[in-house]
Write a structure and sequence with these properties.
Number of strands: 12
Mean pLDDT: 95
Order of helices and strands: EHEHEHEHEHHEHEEHEHEHEEH
CATH superfamily of the largest domain: NAD(P)-binding Rossmann-like Domain
Shape: elongated
Number of domains: 2
Distance between the termini: 7 Å
CATH class of the largest domain: Alpha Beta
CATH topology of the largest domain: Rossmann fold
Strand content: 15-25%
Helix content: 25-40%
Low-confidence stretches: 324-329
CATH architecture of the largest domain: 3-Layer(aba) Sandwich
C-alpha cells in the first residue's frame, strides 16, 4: 500500500501526476493557506508537502500526528519552518533549490529594468490615455550601462543576477559571508556597509536568517548614493519597510522594484502611493518550468526518504540517520 502524502496547495498537473505515482494523495482543496487545519488534515499521513505560506512553528510541529515522518517545502526559503523543532521530532525537512534560480534572477532583471526606466508609470500613463505628444524630457529613466550593481547575497540566485547584469554592461559588486569561488570578475566587499556605498543599483538576494533580518535599515539606506535603485527579490523581513518608504518618498532612493514584503499578502498601502516603484506579488519563481521543477524535487525527496534512502537538499541532515524502512499497514 502506498504511503500517504498531504499537499497543502493546488500544484501543477505534472507535479500531481508524479506525486500520485509514489503516494496516495491527500489534497487540501482551497487556494489559500491551510493554517490551523494542518494537524487535522495530516492525520494518518506519512509525509507533508507544504508551502512557504504555511507556518510550521514548534507548536504546529508538535501537534502533527506521529505518523508524519518527513516534510518538504515547496520553496527554497525555509524561515516558515522551525528547523530546530523539526529536528527534535526527528523530522527531515527538504527544500527545492537550484530549479528556480534562473526564474528569480530573470525577475530581478525585470525589476531592475522597470524601476530604472520607471516603466510602471509610463505604462499607466499609456493605459490611462495620457500619452500625448512626444517630449524630449518625458519618461526619462536611468541607463544601466556602466552602473554599479550591488548584490547583497551571492548564492545561486545572486550569481544568476550577476551574470545577466554583466551582459547589460553593469559593474557587479557583491557582499557575501565570504568570496564566491564562481564570482570571478565581480568585486567582493567584506562588509554590507561598503557594498551599499558603492551601489548605483542595490539588490537584496540574501536568505532570511537571524543575522540578515532587518539588515537594511535607515542607517544603511542612507549609505546608498542618492538616486540609487533599490530591488528586493529575497524576503521582506530583511528590510525596514518604514525606512525604505521614507527613502523613496524623499528621493534618496530614486526608484524601487519589489517582489517581496514583510506581511504578504497584506502589503503596506503606502507603497501603492509612491512614485517610481514597480511592485510585483511575489512572482519570482512563477514560471511553468520552475514550479514543476520545485514539485519534482520535493516529491522525489519525500519518495526517496520513504524508500529508506538519503535524499539531497535536506535542511537538517542529522535526521537522516540509518533506519529500517517500515511497511505501511
Amino acid at each position: 500500500m502506498k504511503r500517504r502524502l498531504l499537499i497543502t496547495r493546488t500544484l501543477p498537473d505534472a507535479v500531481l501526476v508524479r506525486a500520485r505515482a509514489a503516494f496516495e494523495l491527500v489534497l487540501w482543496p482551497h487556494d489559500k493557506p491551510i493554517g490551523a487545519q494542518l494537524p487535522a488534515w495530516a492525520q494518518g499521513c506519512d509525509a507533508l508537502l507544504v508551502m512557504a505560506t504555511d507556518r510550521l512553528d514548534a507548536a504546529a510541529l508538535q501537534a502533527l500526528a506521529p505518523t508524519v515522518r518527513s516534510i518538504a517545502t515547496y520553496s527554497v526559503g525555509h524561515d516558515h519552518i522551525d528547523l530546530a523543532a523539526a529536528t527534535q521530532r526527528g523530522l527531515p525537512v527538504f527544500n527545492t533549490p537550484d530549479v528556480l534560480s534562473d526564474a528569480v534572477a530573470e525577475v530581478a532583471m525585470l525589476l531592475i529594468l522597470s524601476a530604472a526606466r520607471d516603466a510602471t508609470s509610463a505604462e499607466a500613463t499609456l493605459r490611462g490615455g495620457g500619452w500625448g505628444p512626444w517630449s524630449p524630457t518625458r519618461f526619462l529613466g536611468v541607463q544601466l550601462t556602466g552602473r554599479r550593481l550591488g548584490l547583497f547575497g551571492m548564492g545561486r540566485i545572486g550569481l544568476g543576477i550577476a551574470q545577466r547584469a554583466r551582459a547589460f554592461g553593469m559593474q557587479v559588486h557583491y557582499h557575501n559571508r565570504s568570496p564566491h569561488p564562481d564570482a570571478q570578475g565581480f568585486r567582493y566587499h567584506p562588509t554590507l556597509d561598503a557594498l551599499m556605498a558603492h551601489s548605483d543599483v542595490f539588490c537584496v538576494c540574501a536568505p532570511s536568517t537571524p543575522q540578515t533580518r532587518g539588515a537594511i535599515d535607515s542607517r544603511r539606506l542612507a549609505l546608498l548614493p542618492r538616486g540609487a535603485v533599490f530591488i528586493n527579490i529575497a524576503r521582506g523581513d530583511l528590510v525596514d519597510e518604514d525606512a525604505l518608504i521614507e527613502a523613496i518618498a524623499s528621493g534618496h532612493v530614486g526608484a524601487a522594484g519589489l517582489d517581496v514584503y514583510q506581511r504578504e499578502p497584506q502589503i503596506d498601502r503606502r507603497f501603492l502611493q509612491l512614485p517610481r516603484t514597480t511592485l510585483l506579488p511575489h512572482v519570482g519563481s512563477a514560471t511553468h518550468e520552475a514550479r514543476e521543477g520545485m514539485g519534482r524535487l520535493a516529491v522525489d525527496a519525500l519518495a526517496a526518504f520513504a524508500r529508506g534512502e538519503k535524499p539531497a537538499h535536506c535542511l537538517n541532515p542529522e535526521t537522516l540517520a540509518p533506519r529500517a524502512v517500515e511497511s505501511t499497514p
